[in-house]
Amino acid sequence: MGMTTPPRTLAEALRARDDESLAGLLRARPDLLNPVPGDITQLATRAGTRASVVRALEHLDRFALQAAEALAVAADPAPYETLLGLLTGDGRDDGEHRDDAGAAISDALPGALATLREQALVWGEDERLRLVRTAREILAPSPQHASPTGLGPTVAEATSGMSPGRLQEILAAAGLPATHDPVSAVTALAALFTDRTRMGELLDSAPAEALSVLDRLVWGPPYGEVTPNPTPPVKWLRDHGLLLPVSTRTVVLPREAALHLRAGRAHRVPEPRPPAVEAVAVRDPQAVDSAAAGQALLAVNTVEELLKNWNGGGPPILRAGGLSVRELKRTATALEVPEPVAAFWAELAFAAGLLASDGEADERYAPTPAYDDWAELPAQDRWTHLATAWLAATRTSGLVGGQDAKGRALSALGPELDRSAAPEVRHRVLALLAALAPGTAPDPETVLARLRWERPLRGASVSAGDTIDLRSRIALWTLNESELLGITGRGALATHTRALLDAGPAEAAALLAPLIPEPLDHVLLQADLTAVAPGPLERPLADMLSALADIESKGGATVYRFTPGSVRRALDAGQSAADLHAFLATHSRTPVPQPLSYLIDDVARRHGHLRIGAASSYVRCDDEAVLNEILADKRSVTLRLRRLAPTALAAQVDPASLLEGLREMGYAPAAESAEGDVLITRAGARRTPPRTAPVPVPEGPPVPDDTLLGAAVRAIRAGDTAATVVRKDTPEAPATAPGSLPRTTSAETLATVQAAAMTGSALWIGYVNADGAASQRVIAPVRVEGGFVTAYDHTADEVRTYPLHRITGVAELADDATA
Fold first, then answer.
1. Which residues are CB-contacts of 738 (< 8 A; sequence separation ≥ 6)?
2. How far apart (Å, rounded) are the C-alpha atoms in residues 656 and 671?
3. The model's pTM
4. Which residues in the chain come in under a pLDDT of 50?
5. Omega before 595 cis (within 30°)?
6. Of 117, 193, 408, 470, which is least packed with CB atoms within 10 Å of its CB?
7. What is the pLDDT of residue 817?
8. How far apart are the C-alpha atoms of 519 and 304, rounded to whole Å?
9. CB 374 within 8 A of CB 301
10. What does the DSSP assignment read for 58-87?
């Protein structure tokens, strides 16, 4: 659709675009697709709404936004040269503008302008550039507020309510000829401020203190307060029109005067080029990969340890959702990490779908069934699962400990931690790292500066607990979390992470696998009742050893300690003393120390000697002397024991409390079932019902794929064809207003459609579908029968069948419309 004349409206400019350009607009501004506009006019109207324009402005980079801001303070329309001049200045050196900035701006401005045009924020030819009206209202200064450039209103805007007498006084003080026409007076004053020579002479005659006042206002804000009796410098500026009254106590520096003082620049520091991401260190890429791989393995083990700790049912969930402060502290102590790091691991497990609420009345956190499948995967695949979940998650653990909009504390795993910008910021930070040479660790401050240039903040309103620069906070958290997770190593992006971003989890796992040590099938037993695991252990060995011993220290090698309590834990899980001896002999590269064998035999000999059941609860033992000792012990008073028989005692507490109380007294009782069999307690038996991972909260509408874009463009073109097609004006079907549906009677509709089917001509119809949505279409009827018309639909580019009763009316097309 070519155009021989410049477009007069945004709709005409959009109508002149090709399909690829329209698809680019919808891709850049997906909010315009919901719902799909009926035609180009609807698309242009929606593109000019305030909410859509604000969203588009917030996604511009800094220089594109500066170009839009410059257009907002220029006359409408403005030629390209005027826009360029507002960004580069008029060539006068004011001591703040670098000599090479003009060339950089000239090189970058065409690209920025192309971005503004693509997103339908600017339209028109280079000779008549127009900023969309809504964008101008947002960015341009007015008598009530200054623009983002710090410029105030024009002379005409600032003097709109000024009396003619006051205008004459200003003209006289400035040495301009008097005129009784207010419009001429305003024009003369504006011409003075834009005349470099005359404006220079006026400023040369100003007192030095007056120039100091202008220096404070020139870069904004341009407003100042004055007293009823201003100082002589302020009075001089006011008398000469360099400060114009906005109210009885407020004056403003008019835009034309400010631009002269700025050497013609709309911005103090134009930023045509993105700031470079600088390096703080360049390391050996192999050392980076090794460090990242070690941290990746630690991350997998930490998440597994967290979920093992919550195997039997994790901490209770607060009524408002999330973990209590006390439970977070307990988790941090168990993992031997600070509380913010513990919150990160819990949130990561939750985002990966490995942790959820159990849904019981006494609601608690517990591992999901997906955890069991995840735990069986190789370490590299477990890591890619965690890393992929982290990249897509909108939950932001860095907010834990802050406050929401109502001043309530934000808790780990709570409901208020979603930030839709988090995935985009994470990907952008990692993309910046990936653009550096392998092994390069960036300076975080330069990363933040680059992000602010790519997405400058524009006075966003924020909730309590958030700062305005939330994206910068997320970026810093991303750098820290990347190191914790093994995304980076020693500050530089790892090779397996580059593969994860470019090729996917499978390629990343293949690169990570050789860097992770093979699981070991042995430990080294020590004479001091400890065992040393010199590396990661095979899963069955690790599970059994964690039941038989307590972890004393972690690191490159893990130290386990055997205690009476840990041995009893293994016996409670159904192991016998013989099983434990055989297990240690099989998996130890050193002989089993005699003290460890004695410890196992001693605990096993006493294990199960006492039996605990429900009476409320009871204790039975074949040795009456043992029961006598228990009754005589003062520590058993809280259990409220009473002898029922020589070999049985009853208690007024539940079996679990009785079991724990006797163990604290030094005994090794075992629980039994109603049939008298010993109960075996197995770790990790509690699981939630099947759960899915939390769905990330999207930031605005999703970006449509190419198929949807193509269909949307065809639908918009079709609707536009129907809305703009030229119709014949006949007594039976008079021409209607553009955009309205044709109206004919049923008989007229049937006769016109049948005639068109016989002659093969096209018709313009109005159609209402089953959902009540009305549309206009151009069809070529092929067959009419049974109350339906089968026709080739020019707007949809396919053959369709329409019920005649849903056609509101028909009209023949003008001869030139079908040519």
1. 723, 724
2. 8
3. 0.76
4. 1-3, 95, 459-468, 684, 732-733, 816-819
5. no
6. 408
7. 46
8. 15
9. no
10. HTS-HHHHHHHHHHHHS-SSB-HHHHHHHH
